[in-house]
């Protein structure tokens, strides 16, 4: 086989995947526009779906949606059951209402905040299945599947699985899939695309001749 | 598969690029092939005497055959067809099996099996 030239961006992409995967096991908090947040978990997604957050349900978002998202993934988050919880929430909103929005215009600031949240979610789902654009018929919550697969495999409780960072949950799911089916095909979100861009460039002359 | 000590920014260990030509001919299309493996086995014929004791054997080489997982961009290319050919390490192979594609984020991955082609197409 002829030696292949280095693929531009390949080492960076592989390293990015490695860092995202490995770091998730250290349990560090993350940051969205400088604001400290916990790693995204299934329980966060449940809360976000409950308030119909456009960041998980789709649709346009406004500043209220950004603040709500940041509150739910904040280490300070708690359900608003008592007056002291409401006070904590009020102080949180006051503290992040300016720092969450960075941009030359209010529109830029809102878009930047939304993009930072989308990046945070996107990175959390680095090892997600990606989907093929087709919805399959659902007979139970995806969370039931996660608990059954990961919790069942390791003997972990439902709460443990719900509070597991998505980055770790998806890696465990992949590992279990490979144990059960060594032929399973997996995708690497960043390095597969870099490889594909490389191949597309190789194929470009032939494609042009065909067209 | 062994883990490489150094990843120098090219394809990971065990992966390679295959230029696959459709059965009807034409320009080859390049695919990244993961988990590429080729098996070179021997075919042994054994001979026994009238008491069923070993008398001799002769071995010829078997066809080389192998398997790989091909990656392709669903919008730019389709999975290769059965009978498509490629040449690797001075041996030409043709695809004898093409599995169902698994698709995610616009990329597809598909399992293929291939067999050595003795008469290389012109």
Kindly describe this structure:
The complex is a heterodimer of chains A (about 210) and B (about 120). Chain A is mainly α and about 210 residues long. Helices cover about 60% and strands about 5% of the residues of chain A. In chain A, strands 1-2 form a two-stranded antiparallel ribbon. In chain A, helix 7 crosses helix 9. The model of chain A has no long low-confidence stretch (mean pLDDT about 90). In chain B, strand 1 and strand 2 form a beta hairpin. Chain B has about 120 residues and is mainly beta. The model of chain B has no long low-confidence stretch (mean pLDDT about 85). In chain B, the strands form two sheets. In chain B, strands 1, 2, 5, 6, 7, 8 and 9 form a seven-stranded antiparallel sheet that branches. Helix content of chain B is about 0%, strand content about 55%. Chains A and B meet through helix 1 and helix 10 of A and strand 2, strand 5, strand 8 and strand 9 of B.
Secondary structure elements and pairings:
The complex is a heterodimer of chains A (211) and B (122).
Chain A: H1 10-23, E1 30-32, E2 35-37, H2 42-50, H3 54-57, H4 63-72, H5 83-99, H6 106-124, H7 142-154, H8 158-162, H9 166-180, H10 191-210
Antiparallel strand pairs in A: 1-2
Helix pairs in contact in A: 4-6, 7-9
Chain B: E1 16-20, E2 29-39, E3 42-48, E4 54-61, E5 65-73, E6 85-88, E7 91-98, E8 102-104, E9 107-116
